[in-house]
Amino acid sequence: MREPAGSRAGQRVALVSGASRGIGAACARHLFETGWTLSLGMREPLQPDWTDGERVRVFPYDAAQAGCERAWVNGTVDAFGRIDAVVASAGIMIPKSVIDVDDADLDLMFEINVKAPRRLVRASWASLAASHTGRVIILASLSGKRVKSVTAGSYSISKFAAVALSHGIRQAGWDLGIRATAVCPGFVATDMARGITDRADALMTDPDDLARIIGLLLDLPDHASVAEFSINCQLEESY
Questions:
Q1: Is 77 exposed, middle or buried (0-12, 13-18, 19+ CB in 10 A)?
Q2: Nearest Cα to 164, choosing from 110, 219, 93?
Q3: Residues pairing with 202 in the sheet
Q4: What residues contact 43, with CB distance under 8 A and at least 6 apart?
Q5: Burial (Cβ within 10 Å: 0-12, 13-18, ≥19) of residue 78
Q6: Which residues pair with 86 in a beta bridge?
Q7: Which of 126, 166, 203, 229 meets the CB 3.0–4.6 Å disulfide criterion with 182?
Q8: pTM of the shown model
Q9: Are 74 and 87 in contact (CB under 8 A)?
Q10: For the chain, what is the largest distance between any 2 Cα atoms, rounded to a whole number of angstroms?
C-alpha cells in the first residue's frame, strides 16, 4: 500500500488564504490538528487561539492587493524553509445578475476569486515543485459548475474561471509532482452563505466537514489525484 503524501519525510507546510473565518479558518484548524505546519494569510493578522505558536505563523494578506503575496510567500520560506501546499480559500460574492452587475463589481470578483489565487500559486511555484508532492486547492463553488439563480450569475462567471484555473495549474504542474483540485461546495454554513439564504446552518454543509475533505485531498498520492470535488447540502439533478 502506498503512503499518503502527508506521511512522507519532512514536516509539510501549507499556505491558507482567507484563514480568519469560514472555510479557511476551519481548514487551517483541521490541518493543524492533523500535523501540518501552517502559514495563514489574513487581512488583519491575528494568531488563532488554537495554535501552539510554533507550527503556525500569521501574515498580512489582502487578496485584492496584487503583489502582497510575494512577502507572504517569502516570509513563509524564511520561517519554515518550504511550502508544500496552497489552499486558496479567500473569496467574495456580489449577488447580481449578469445584466445588473457593473464592471467594477465583476472586476473585484475576478481579482479575488481568480487572479489572487493564481498569483499566490505562481509565487509559491518553485517551492511547490521542490516539494515533489506539491498540492493546490482552489476553493471554487458549485456556482462554478452551474448557474443556480439569477443573482448567482455574475459570481458564477468568476467561479467557472476559478475551476478552469485549477485545471490549468494541474496541467502546468503535473510533471513537477504538483497536483491541483477545484473544491466545489454548495451552501456552506459561513457568513457568506448566511447573507444570501435563509437556510438554517444545520441544513448547510458544515465547514469542518469541508475541511476534512480538503485534508484528504491534500494527503492523496500522485496517482490518486482528484481534479474536482463537488459537495452539496441539497439534492440537485447532477450535484
A1: middle
A2: 110
A3: none
A4: 20, 60, 61, 62
A5: exposed
A6: 15, 136
A7: 166
A8: 0.94
A9: no
A10: 54
